């Protein structure tokens, strides 16, 4: 392996920004006070948390009292779905979601099904989109929650969130969106979009790992997730992870400030990569909507080859990316998202996800294309599926 | 997660390709499961003179294919039939647990290619067509995993 290293997996995680780390550091050492303590040291920590809360609220168009810090995006998803479901059980037992949600939602919904709730998993079209009409049709008198992700982590498809929000509002049903991939990438306003609950995660926009937040619209009936002390106004007990909360606030502030510039840059990288791959490599398929997609997301399936092999060979060239193949997920099934958009298993196994971030350049794209074209060719040469004239076995 | 030997056999696979007029060809696996292995054998006087493969699959699938071809060349058919998945995995300094099915695939590919040879030479009474579909559909035991 050479010295070259290019990171194209920003949907997995991002590096914590230098300014963010600097903002966090004092809260590990000299400003270590417990925010619940009454003396100055404690009050300083408390103040830092509240400033961070203001920043998150501002980024979402919410009020600070509607922001609750959590340990992760997954926790926020769990809390949102279980919290609303259990608090509104008397009202109904039906939840609407989609078949392409992150496992943090899907597995939570499956858990609720085992506890007497009923869940509709809306199918998506070949680009991964649900329509507002689909959502409206699925509503029943006992529907208590609609949970639909803002943007998909694998194929980058952005859902018509504002339209769905309007429908949810009309029918007086709580609307949650898992916006873990969207925050910092796409403008979001919970008021304009009629979002009642929204999950986010710090490490997707150059903040630290192990910190997330849930926006909960004032007046939303939901149960507390963690029971204990009075932190987060009794809704999420636990001594606050002050440094991480400070980091999250700083990161979301910078992400919001830079969003236009960031998007412009990512779009240029994304669109050129998509166009060049389409030009240079035959037998491929772009997964996800060509335009309604995250600015940094590229996802292709390469026929006749398998994703893990592709990733390993790219890694040897110093390129870090990801795939929806079974071999990379630790299970034997390819990504549920790729299957939901209708890909046959063998095509889903051959997927590659490239997600750009702010340190990436057009030169990185040149390097990627230079490496990718011969690697795909080489793996195809090795593949018995490439020449279809031999064994007719399926 | 992979041993150096697996990575070596993945990055520099031995015996990739096809053998024209091979004496035995075996294909196992299923594209649905993400791996297919096809093995070609050249057999003279009951001894495997040459082996080549084509594989669609993960790093472990390619590496086990490569290792399997190395292991069988020079062996008699009886000896080659005794090459187990464990032997293939061991020769690669081990495989991660979730990848052990790849070594099963290698063992089955060897067997399938030898059976093909035996069938062609009247040493086996099975019907060709049935064997082909059986190989492709059933060998890859995904339910053994997880």
What do you see in this structure?
The complex is a heterodimer of chains A (394) and B (146). Chain A has 394 residues and is an alpha/beta fold. Chain A has helices at residues 18-24, 40-60, 73-87, 103-113, 132-138, 161-170, 242-280, 307-316, 326-329, 336-340, 345-348, 362-382, and strands spanning 6-7, 67-70, 94-98, 118-122, 143-147, 174-178, 197-201, 212-216, 284-286, 297-302, 319-320, 351-355. In chain A, the strands form 3 sheets. A 7-stranded mixed β-sheet of chain A has the order 2-8-7-6-5-3-4, with helices on both faces. A 3-stranded antiparallel β-sheet of chain A has the order 9-10-12. In chain A, strand 3 (94-98), helix 4 and strand 4 form a beta-alpha-beta unit. In chain A, 51% of the residues are buried. Chain B has 146 residues and is of the alpha+beta class. Chain B contains 6 helices and 3 strands. The radius of gyration of chain B is 14 Å and the shape is globular. The relative contact order of chain B is 0.20. Mean pLDDT of chain B is 86; it is low at 128-146. The A-B interface holds A 304-306, 308-309, 312-313, 316, 325-327, 330-332, 334, 344-346, 349, 381-385, 390-394 and B 7, 10-11, 13, 16, 25, 27, 31-38, 54-62, 98-99, 132-133, 135-137, 142, 145-146.
